[in-house]
Structures are given as structure tokens and as C-alpha cells.
């Protein structure tokens, strides 16, 4: 239990100390934000900071910090380390930079932001990559909650999928303050209460939570590196978040509140992931027990068991509603963000309903078709695509910081986690079942070589390029 409380304290301290340090480097100002300068009543809508924070939290806290954290708990309490340090030094930095850089660029979609700092070729890649990821996210967050609703109500999966599809269509199409701005803050508060209830139940009921060990406790012996880092997904770092941050960059009325919204929401998600990982580690007494529960009922079954056992019937229903609302309120904004990405890409105005319809209908249709595929397969591809996007965004953040502060080493704040994620994602796709299925003797060294190449290219195109320019000027 000591490990759990220590990790919880570290997350809070990380927000107060490292989050403040990151914010001081970015140097927020009092200049007019896009929400006010480009107010259009549809996507650029000024909102209070508290409301923007709760919407951002619901946007990013889908199934990842719950399902991903539960699956990550199969490796034992070592997962706590990745959730804590991944959140503080990678995930929250990623979310903050993606949101604040977008804010400085009129709320531009993340593909446009990355393209500005990594070049036109990367912009083209990111446009496609972002839309594919967002549709996958929307599909995952369509199927997952529908499965939970089936378990809770006994009604058919097709019925609940249809209900969710209709809701997604409306949330994608209507102005952001008509549905999202009204219901998200309420569900955000419910999500926080649910997490506190589950965490309190684990502690007060006296469940045996093993203390920190670096031993691999996975029942199947799957390696910690890199599988655990990909499995936890949104609970530590998520490229999906960078597609959501620009939406809130279009609603934030004060640039100085960026740390609370972007860095703070990711830390809050880290806390939620930590609680569910702790529940996964402790509730079934062993990782073997957790594995059996996952095999029998999937992550939704685990959430059901934990919620009703710890919180009783009423509390269990409320907790399940929170867990169901959480992914739904990420899925709708995934499709909304996909619409905005395509609009930015093709320079399509989005004030008229017909303009939004042309993009919303095909996006939702594709998601509905993909929802009929195997959920486990969709989740694995989402998890890898998600973390790979995070790597690209961190590299863009590193270039931005270098350009803003060429004489200071601030760019390493993003370049170090970007290198780490480059190694993780490349190693994973080489050895994963859905990847090339190569042995670790090949995937491990290849992953580190790929990370080294990415780091070299960053140094070459920043520090070395600058030195060459200075030498040329001196020779003239």
C-alpha cells in the first residue's frame, strides 16, 4: 500500500513542480486567444477554465486509463512506475506542448502543427495518420462502452451501438457548447468521484496490494519491454491527446491557464490510471487471478466486478455509468477532431451545417463499419498508432522549444521522451503479434538503433545546422 500512496504523491508533486517548470519555459502571455479572436459559435467558443479542464479530462480519459491500466497490471506493481514517470515527464509534457503550440497557431489541428515544425512531408504523413488514429479511437470508444452497456442492461450490442452512433453524429456536428460543453463537466465530476470511490474501496476494504518490485509478474511471461509501455497506452502518454488539445485551444480564454488544462488533465488521468492499476493488482489477489478474470469477461468484466464489489449496487451502477460515459465522451470528440483535421487539411469552412455534414457522415459511417471487427485487434492497432503519434508530436515540440530557446537546453525536455517513445514503438511493432513477429534478439537492438537515428536527425537539423549557418556567416 505504501507504493501506491508514494506514487499518488509523486503525481501531485510532479504537477506542482515539473508542471510549473514546463510552463515557465513556454512563457505564457496575456495576448488574445483564438477562442476570442476567431469566435465563430461552432468550434471557436470561449469557455471558463474549469469547464475547459473538465472537457479536456473527458476528451482524453477514454478507455485507456481504465482498460489499459488494468491490462498493464498483469505485469504487477512495476506498472506504477511507468504510469507515474510516464505521465510527469512524457504524457503531460506532450499534452501541454500540443495544446499550447496549437493555441499559438490559432488552434490549428495537430497535423498542421507538426507539419509546421517537422516539414511538409511529415505534415502529409500526419494528416493521414491523425485521421486514421481518430477513426480507430472513435471505433474503440464505440464498441467498448456498448459492451459494458450490454453487460449492465442485457440489451443487444447492435442496439447500443446504434444509440452511440447517433449520439456521435450529433456531437460531431453541433456547436461544441450545445452538447459537449453542457454534459462533459457533469460527467467529468462523476469520473473523478468514481475513481476516488474505487481507490478508497481498495484501501478501506484492506485488499492486499503488493509493494513495488521490478520482477515481471505477468502470468504468461510476456516481456515488460516494450509490451507494458504500449498496453498502458493513455494511462501514461497518448498521441490521441494531441488531437484533442487543439479543440480546447479554441475554447481557452486565458493562455496562462494552459498548465491547469493541458498538463493538469493528464496528471488527473494518470491518477485515474494508477487507481485502476492498483485495483487490478490487488482485487484478484494475484496477476494470475486478474488474467483469469480478463479471459472470462474481458476488461469490462473486471470493471464490473470491481465496481459492484467495492461500491455496492447503487455505487456500482454509478461507477459503471462513469466508466461508460468516459470512453463515449472521448469517442465523440475523436470524430469531431477528425472532422476538424480534414477541414484544416482541405481548407473547408465549418460554420455552415452542410459543410460539417459532408465530413461527419462518412467519418461516422466508417467507424460504424469498423465496430463490427474484433475489438481486441482494433485495440492493439489503436494502442501502437496512438503511441507512435505521441512520438511525432514530442519531436515537433522539441523543434519548437529549440527554435524558441536556441541558446538553452530546454528542447531536451521533449527530445528525451521522444527518443524513448521512438525506441518503444519501433521495438513493439517489430516483435508484436500484429507486427512483424520478430524475436527480441532482432527487435531490441533494432529499436535502439531507430531511436538513435531519430535523435541524430534531430541534432543534425537543429544544433548542427545552426553551427553550419554560423560558420558560413563568419566566413562571409
Structure description:
The protein is built from 17 helices and no strands. It has 476 residues and is mainly α. The protein has a single domain, classed as Amino acid/polyamine transporter I (Up-down Bundle). The termini are far apart.
User: Which band does the percent of strand residues land in?
Assistant: under 5%
Assembly classification: single chain
Give the distance, in angstroms, between the N- and C-terminal Cα atoms: 66 Å
The class by helix and strand makeup works out as mainly alpha
Residue runs with pLDDT of under 50 for 5 or more positions: none
What is the CATH superfamily label? Answer: Amino acid/polyamine transporter I
Summarize the helices and strands and which ones pair or pack.
Elements: H1 2-26, H2 34-37, H3 49-60, H4 64-72, H5 78-104, H6 110-118, H7 120-153, H8 157-173, H9 180-204, H10 227-232, H11 239-249, H12 258-283, H13 287-346, H14 353-370, H15 375-404, H16 412-431, H17 440-475
Helix pairs in contact: 1-5, 1-12, 3-9, 3-11, 3-12, 4-12, 4-13, 5-11, 5-12, 5-15, 5-16, 6-7, 6-15, 7-8, 7-13, 7-14, 7-15, 8-13, 8-14, 9-12, 9-13, 11-13, 11-15, 12-13, 13-14, 15-16, 16-17
